[in-house]
Amino acid sequence: MKFTGHNLRWPIPLAQRVSALGNRLVRAPYFRGHGVHSPYIYNIVREVFMCKHLLDGDRRLYTALINEGVCKRRAMQLQNLAIHCGFADFGINTSEAELCIALCSLPKEKLLDMVRVAREQHRTIALIAPYATPERWALCQHIIAQHRSTTVDNRGYLLIFNNHLPKQHFRI
Question: In whole angstroms, what is the distance from residue 84 CA to residue 136 CA?
């Protein structure tokens, strides 16, 4: 297509643009916490996801995640989540802590076992990079469908709460 002699080209193919638009439209109702009818999750969105700096407190989780290759923004958000929710300890690829972090390198069987143990012991899980591969996303969808409490998909990680919250799923 030409207007006045210049070629107009889309830098991204149209199919990818439409796919990305669909993902954003699904998340649009929860933008900046709007439409989230849970005060607990609303506070997490406003005070953790939207925070641009590390909160005052222990920074061991942030350092451990950076050393594991998690990007700084996601590591900062998870550190702020731990401070905001008052988690006393964390574990990477283990369910033996209040906040359990599951990296992409964790095999499917171990991940499902970790989710089961965390559910029984009422612990929170963060699955890093739920969209890394189609298989990982299918596994995350299965976990969400089987889960009895609230889950929050924040693109970079999937939070699975095992507490008093009702069964809800937010894509933020």
Answer: 28
Would you say the pTM of this structure is higher than 0.90?
A: no
Asked whether residue 12 carries a pLDDT value surpassing 90, the answer given is: no
The predicted-structure confidence for 131-145, as pLDDT tens digits, reads as follows 999 999 999 999 999
Average pLDDT over residues 29-55: 75
13 and 20 Cβ atoms separated by less than 8 Å: no
Q: In which residue are the tokens 């599951």 written?
A: 102
C-beta pairs of 45-52 under 8 Å, 24+ apart in sequence: 45/172, 47/80, 47/84, 48/77, 48/80, 48/81, 48/84, 49/77, 49/154, 49/172, 51/76, 51/77, 51/80
Neighbours of 157 (CB within 10 A): 21
> Residue 112 is encoded by which pair of tokens?
């499902």
